[in-house]
Design a protein that fits this description.
460 residues; alpha/beta; Aspartate Aminotransferase, domain 1; Aspartate Aminotransferase, domain 2; 7-stranded mixed beta sheet; 16 helices
Length: 460
């Protein structure tokens, strides 16, 4: 126990944690995770949890995969690192790029490797600007995203994101980043408005924004196939069918952020496949290596690559990159991870087990006084809490209801993620139906505990 306390103090004295209240962390300290296998993770106190979030939407093949560890070790012994600047390369990165191009949506032509989803989306922003400069359209630079969308935390990626937490204290978003309405029918639709009518209205909103700004200034639109950190928001019926023609009409590139949806999460290889999308640029990360190694990619279509290939020579070298772009150990991890995803047919498994998760959540929580909406697709789901009898009313954010439930769930041995008043589920794709049943049972027990507390406080 002394060792654990010493580590906790060292943590508080030395680590600045992402998306963590500094003051609360310094008072309470960290939960230190120690080991994991499959969908189970254990902390240094010996407590075991079902990780219904796959870390942060990312450990798709589950914990403890020796195949990936072995591939990384072997590559580290052979070539632990060499950069990809100035035409240098390595075999794992070449083979990984070719493999991604084989299955990526749209008409993919080349891959740029980075280290995180934030970096890959930052790369997409710079590619969009570079593309239009090469086309002789220097004014065509504005990028449209959605409120509630999450695309990363670097300056450009945070500007794409539509979450106030990422903006207010950092003087963001930067100029030229615009946002349209979150496609959440439950919260944003007008009374009596069907999903298709809602989608048509959002497409009109997008078109009106493009026309107001001037089509000659609007360069790209970015969207997650299913919005993840914004509350697990699947698109309403007809949404992308209405949005994409507007983009094509005004020569606006479509960036599909597949950081969460890619590599099987929705029951298809990519979220774009689920909705029959053909994006111009695709961002992948998390599931690329199942987070066994930091690695991401910007996948570039022939439409964009053709311009770069044919018109970049007068501008000299492509002035963008990272020291560890196309890292050989990361590429080896990704190749082993893709072997598991394909060999074990984990996308198909996500479709089957995900259907069970969606049914069990709806059956167990339908009619619960504090559940406003259950939503999701495949192995991603969200349960939004709302005051009893309030219709589409919301709990005041100051109550921290979602966070309080997440804490109760930890007591039940279950890890979910609080996104405001929504609790998110995104388990490893290897989760079994029996483990899904246990997830739902534990969630129900934690929710009942919180309900009793809120009723006693007079806020339920």
């Amino acid at each position: 126990m002394r060792d654990r306390r010493d580590l906790a103090e060292l943590d508080k004295q030395s680590l600045l944690h992402p998306f963590t209240s500094i003051s609360e962390h310094l008072e309470g300290g960290p939960r230190i995770m120690d080991r994991a296998q499959g969908v189970i993770i254990r902390d240094r106190d010996g407590r075991e949890y079902i990780d219904a979030m796959a870390g942060l939407w990312c450990v798709n093949v589950g914990y403890g995969r020796e195949e990936i560890a072995h591939a990384m070790a072997e590559q580290a012994r052979r070539l632990p690192f060499y950069h990809s600047f100035a035409s240098s390369s390595n075999e794992p990165a070449i083979r990984l790029a070719e493999r991604l191009l084989r299955d990526a949506p749209g008409q993919p032509s080349v891959v740029f490797f980075a280290n995180s989803g934030s970096e890959a989306n930052e790369t997409q922003v710079k590619l969009v600007w570079y593309y239009n400069n090469l086309r002789g359209k220097p004014a065509k630079k504005k990028i449209i995203a959605r409120t509630g969308g999450y695309h990363g935390v670097t300056l450009g990626a945070a500007s794409l994101s539509g979450l106030p937490l990422l903006h207010g204290s950092f003087d963001l978003p930067l100029p030229g980043f615009l946002h349209v309405t979150k496609p959440h029918h439950y919260r944003e639709a007008r009374d009596g408005e069907s999903e298709r009518e809602f989608s048509a209205r959002l497409a009109r909103e997008l078109e009106e924004l493009i026309l107001r700004e001037g089509p000659e200034t609007v360069a790209a639109f970015v969207a997650e196939p299913v919005m993840a950190a914004g509350g697990v928001i699947p698109p309403p019926e007809g949404y992308f069918e209405a949005i994409v023609p507007v983009l094509r009409e005004y020569d606006v590139l479509f960036i599909a952020d597949e950081v969460v949806c890619g590599f099987g999460r929705l029951g298809t290889a990519y979220g774009s496949d689920t909705f029959a999308l053909e994006p111009d640029l695709v961002t992948v990360a998390k599931g690329l290596t199942s987070a066994y190694f930091p690695m991401s990619a910007a996948i570039v279509s022939e439409k964009v690559w053709g311009v770069l290939r044919e018109r970049s020579a007068p501008h000299g070298p492509f002035g963008h990159g990272h020291t560890t772009s196309a890292h050989p150990v990361g590429a080896a991890a990704a190749l082993a991870n893709l072997d598991i995803l394909e060999g074990e047919k984990l996308a198909q498994r996500a479709a089957r087990v995900g259907a069970h998760l969606q049914t069990r959540l709806r059956d167990a929580l339908s009619g619960h006084p504090l559940v406003g909406e259950v939503r999701g697709l495949g192995l991603i789901a969200g349960v939004e809490l709302a005051p009893s009898g309030s219709g589409r009313g919301e709990f005041d954010a100051s109550l921290g209801v979602g966070r309080r439930l997440a804490e109760r769930l930890l007591d039940e041995g279950l890890i979910c993620r609080a996104l405001g008043n929504t609790l998110a589920f995104s388990p490893p794709l290897v989760i079994s139906e029996a483990e899904v049943d246990e997830v739902v049972d534990r969630f129900g027990r934690g929710l009942d505990r919180l309900t009793g507390e809120l009723e006693a406080e007079g806020v339920a």
